[in-house]
Write a structure and sequence with these properties.
Blueprint (H helix, E strand, L loop, with lengths): L16 E5 L7 H12 L8 H10 L8 E7 L4 E8 L11 E7 L8 H15 L4 E6 L3 H6 L3 E8 L2 E9 L14
Antiparallel strand pairs: 1-2, 2-3, 3-4, 5-7, 6-7
Amino acid sequence: MQSTSPDQLSSSVPAPFRIERLADFPQYVDVIAGWQHAEFGYLDPMQALDERRAKLAESLCAGGVATTLIALTADGTPVGSASLQSKTLVLPNLSPWLSMVVTREPLRGRGIASALSLAVVAEAKRLNFETIYLFTLEQESLYRRLGWKTIGAARIVERFAVVMSRPTELMSRGRFGIGSD
């Protein structure tokens, strides 16, 4: 099967995908950093792409909370990513956070973001966290379907974001686990 560049994806890309650690595929750091910057750069306009790339590269080192997971097609093409972070732009007293969930545009609506989000919850559970947090400007209904509850709001870049939490204990064994189909 011929490999497709992440920027040449079309809606014909097959639905099956697997979730892996970015640390096991460091060749995709630049691609994922570019996606994150394009999708979320407005949240921290002072952060340049090089800074985002360096921060993402730091998450490749084992031992900390920061972890980035990627969704790969059967041929190894990255189609989405999500991160577990110890802190984010809001509520520094809460930790850890589901952050930077991105799915390539032509593949949205196929469950990739949901699977990545649940895999990050599983990772938080593996690290013995009982609760995980997120903020979202537009995807509250998606996260509610995945077991998240609204706990408040925060102002980010002149907009209000919904802050949500979810117990990690709600994870069903094996579902959307890292390395699964």
